[in-house]
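2 proteins. here.
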Amino acid sequence: MTPQQLIQQQVDAYNQRDLQAFTTCFHQDIKLYNYGESAPYLTGMDALAASYKEVFEQSPNLHATIDYRIVLGNTIIDHEKVTGRKGIDFIEVVVIYQVEGEKIKSVTYIRN
């Protein structure tokens, strides 16, 4: 599976609110960052699963649309528009994915 295919699989699982399919895309030692911060705000599969379980349960109309995607080796950069996340109508975000060994190893978010 290419890095681009992996990221699309993850986006599809997110849109289906399928926690099992979503989490299988990530490395056990996943780290989530806010852009510009050196320390991750979320680390590890257990924390990821707990966080997104809540998001999926509280977001029946959740949907992400990818406006632009840049692929450079194992780095994927998506410009996303997200609707229905925990009752918020619209979120715009740039997401930088680092893929290692066919799993997402780190994610950095640039929020508007």
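next one coming up
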Amino acid sequence: MPFLFEKLDVYKLSLDWVAQAAQIAAALHGTTLSPLADQLVRASTSISLNIAEGNGRWHKGDRKQFLWIARGSVFECVAIVQATAGRCPAESHTRAYTTLESLSKMLTKLIQSVDSMRTTSQPTPATEPAQAD
């Protein structure tokens, strides 16, 4: 049985983004922008890790905090992609920006859905925020 977060489209897209970010980072290694390449890999990985960890939390506040961190990592990736735009093909930059924009919107909707979750006295593992598309 898969974990509940594995069913989330935003989680699946975050994993796709990790692969995209790795390609961008590979193109930057060996240049003066190598430190940004390393940071891009860390920030991109942070997105999926925080989505997973947040969905393992019982309390809405905890869950939201991890989703906010994931969203912040998206914005960090945007800044890195913009700063390195001249070092990667334009199509790669456009695809990265589009993916990051989608992740940002999906995480915003997921955070909003956590806000609208009803509070129960005893949370259950089956409790899952609404799917954000």
